[in-house]
Amino acid sequence: MKLRVILDLEGRDAYWQMAIDEALLQLRVRGEVENTLRLYRFKPSAVTIGYFQRVGDAVNLEYIKANSIDFTRRITGGGSVYHDTNGEVTYSIVLPVQGVLTDVLESYRVICSALVYTLRKLGVNAEFAPVNDVVVSGRKISGSAQTRRMGVLLQHGTLMYATNLDVLEKTLVAPREKLASKGVKSIRERVVTLKDIIGEVDVDLLVKTFIEGFKQALNAEIYHDELSEKELRVASELVGKYKSPEWIYKR
Amino acid sequence: MKYESIILRHGKTVKLDVALSDQCEIVNVVVSGDFFAYPEDAIEKLEDKLRYCNSRECIENAFEALREAVVLGVDVKDLENKLVELVEKCRSGQHPARY
Questions:
Q1: Which residues of A touch B11 (CB under 8 A)?
Q2: Model confidence pLDDT, tens digit, residues A235-249
Q3: How close, in Å, is residue B42 to chain A by CA atoms?
């Protein structure tokens, strides 16, 4: 398949990033954009919560408000995520649900194999941990989440190369039962960054390897592009939703 | 009105926040957590169908909303059973179990 790649690494706020992802999904459903991979950053750092989560169960609201950290709800399930401007590259991809991507679990494995490829190329023994994680020695370095609309999937996810894990731990709430099931007592023990493993990270090399990872995972022919005016216009119509208390406190 | 929460962990965490009337009818229920459901609105349909249920039959019928859905990280049958148990204990006059 052909895969359009958009490098959008200058950074935008969480509301715009979520709006662009949804815009790409909508436009792919309408057949108005090609299969697209976008790599981006959250600027400023922000928190997103899963579609089914309740804010109070997923984030430390007191800390987030005291530190003016943006937060919003995703259209994808899964858990809460702290997105560090200077420590995470985020990906999103829109693809038709067909072939090996038809089965939900298998589609997570296929798309996450791009992350596994990237990390292994960088010398890290990463592995896919179903449903939606990539781990190194049992510690999470990447999480992904997917939604599907009318034959198209949107999957987005993280790659933590130098995320400030102290801030991450202060912003997120993880149920004690969940941590216990992973054999750890704190979020800090459960996650790891690339920098923790290999030292300073060359982000340009990381991004280049990441794109190669998607090329391998999807057997894709890559071409580079930029966000179109139409994509930005559709996204601009969605930004308000992601900022609205009605959406953020939906559950 | 009685408010109860059921938390279950099956790979992912799912929480049911249930409001029961004095007649043990489900007045409101919110299913939340870090799980995945495809399509997502199947969960909202389940919540709608569970409203005003006060019997096993009604709850089992409501869970039909998930029959065609793919739900990951949640043992749906366990969820259904725990909700039935909550309502039946309420109806029998027992204090609902806390999970």
A1: 131
A2: 999 999 999 999 999
A3: 12
Q: What is the pLDDT of residue B99?
A: 44
- pLDDT tens digits for A38-90? 999 999 999 999 999 999 999 999 999 999 999 999 999 999 999 999 999 99
CATH number, domain containing residue A203 = 3.30.930.10
pLDDT greater than 80 at residue B96: no
Nearest neighbour of B32 by CB, restricted to A52, A75, A181:
A52
Q: Containing domain of residue A144, as a range?
A: 2-248
Element (H, E) at A3: strand A2-12
Asked if B36 and A57 come within 8 Å (Cβ–Cβ), the reply is no
Distance from CA of B53 to the nearest CA of A (A): 20
Measure the CA–CA gap between A127 and A113, rounded to whole angstroms. Answer: 8
Question: Are the CB atoms for A36 and A247 separated by under 8 Å?
Answer: no
The C-alpha of B96 sits at a distance from chain A's nearest C-alpha, in angstroms, of 21
For residue A96 the two structure tokens come to 């038709």
Residues of chain A positioned with their CB less than 8 A from the CB of B99? none
Domain ranges of chain B: 2-91
CB contact under 8 A, B36 and A178: no
Compute CA distances A59 → A71, A156, A223, A231, B98, whole Å: 9, 20, 38, 30, 24
CATH of domain B2-91: 3.30.390.50
